[in-house]
Each structure stands twice: as structure tokens, then as C-alpha cells.
Amino acid sequence: MGDTNPISGLGAGVRLAGFISxxxxxAVNAMGVLDHxxxxxxxCGAQWPLCHGALVPAFSNEAVIIEYVHRLLTMGFAIxxxxxxxxxxxxxxxxxxxxxxxxxxxxxxxxxxxxxxAGVLWTVPNAVMSWLMxxxxxxQALLWLMVRPGGALPSAARPLRxxxxxxxxxxxxxxxYLYVGAWISYAGPHGLAPGLMMAAGIVLALMGLVWIAxxxxxxxxxxxxxxxxxxxxxxxxFSRTTxxxxxxxxxxxxxxxxxxxxxxxxxLGTSGLGVPARQSVRDASSA
Length: 287
Known about the structure:
The longest helix is centred in the N-terminal third of the chain and has 28 residues, at about 60-90. The termini are close together. Residues about 150-160 and about 270-285 have low confidence and may be disordered. The chain contains 11 helices and no strands. The chain is mostly helical. It has helices at about 10-35, 60-90, 95-120, 125-130, 130-145, 155-160, 165-185, 195-220, 225, 245-265, 275-285. It has one domain (about 5-285). Helix 1 runs antiparallel to helix 5, helix 7 (about 165-185) runs antiparallel to helix 8 and helix 7 (about 165-185) packs antiparallel against helix 10.
């Protein structure tokens, strides 16, 4: 089967920019989690882009180091991301799904940047800051779909193509799950928030069971990827005990969002990268 990913038609430099962007956004989001959970967000003071009035501050404590590294990573991959996005948006011949993901990724990254910058310069309500988690992970998942080798989604796209509404609703539950979890990490486990997150986790786990059963019935290998989804009810809040624990939860949530992105694109009746789902499955079976 030929490579259906439009990124393969771009120059080597643009493809490299895409992979650097993916590595960069994963690193930036991971550092953002550590930044928040160690309360290092104001490690450089309420200044941007300077840190305590200097380009290179005195690394007097852990908060300064974490926040400064977070900012360096952000600036370091921004150029590669801009290069990739400009060329991705120009790939109109790749079809509607590629354009949809390119523009969605651009909008998500703008929203994430605005919230992050506002959080440094001003006091931003927890209800707004909590959007960083679902927005950042959604952007990360879209970028992964765009640059992953091979491009076409697994053959699970075919049985899902007539179930766009259930998959979309499940994705909305995931957004709520991530948002409430982030809100708890900012404001603490108050009121109904822990219960709502547990309920959303149970819904996600039930959806995982349906997906696993459907994939096995259809002979789709993607069932093996969905098993960790069943852990959702038990991740009732983002870990704030150790940095390693924070990163473990972040990696799990990244995987979770990536699986939903693949499912959502499949459920909308497309391979996600410009190839109709039915054609993608037929090509895969003949490869």
C-alpha cells in the first residue's frame, strides 16, 4: 500500500519540522504539567519573555529552573511548528480531512498560547486555566495523526464510519473528563467535581469495552490499543505526589487522547489523512 499521508509529499525539511514539532509539543505539555503541579508557574515572575528581568536568570530555586526550561522548550520548537503549519495549510490538494486537522491544530495552538501567556501576565480564573489540559492534548493528538508514519488510520475506520455521533459524544465526554481533572488540580477536589470526573471515567471505560468487543468481532488489531482505557475511572485526579507520577499520568492521558483522535477521524468516515475509510481498508487488505 502506498503512503497516504500528505506529509510524504512535502520536502524533507518540512517533514523534519513536523517531527520536531511533535517532539516539542510533547515536551512542552509535559513540562507544563510539572510546572503547574510543582507550583512553578511564576518561577520567572509575571514577565514574558524575560525571566526576572533577564534573558538568563539566576537559577536560585527549583521553580525558576522548571519555568525557564518550560519557556525555552516553547520557543525552541515554535519555529519548526510554524514552518510545518504554513506548509500543511497550503496542502489543499490533500483533501478536506487534512485541511480540517491543519486549521484545527492552528486554532488549538493559538488558544493554548493565549491562555498560557495570560496566566503569566495576569491572574486568570481556574475555569479558564483548566482548558489548557484538553486543548494541549487535543493539539498534540492532531499533530501526531498528521506526522505519524504511514498516515492512514487502522482499519477500525470502516466499522466506525456509520457511528460518527457515538464517537463524537464519547470525545466530548473525554474533553469533560480532562477539563474537570484539570480544574480539580487547580482548585482542589471541591463539590461535585470528583464525582463528575469519576462518572466521566466510567463512561469512557464502558466505551472502551464496547470498542474492544467490536474490534475483536471485526478482527481489528486496534483492540489491543484500547485496553488501558479501562483505567479511566481510577484516574480521579492528576497526581501531585512526585514528578515521575505526574509524567506517568500525562503519558497515559496523551495515549488516551491519541486513541480518541484516531477513533473520531474514523467515525467521521475518513482515514483522517485524505483517504476515504472504505478505500483505506481495501488498500490495507490488498497490501
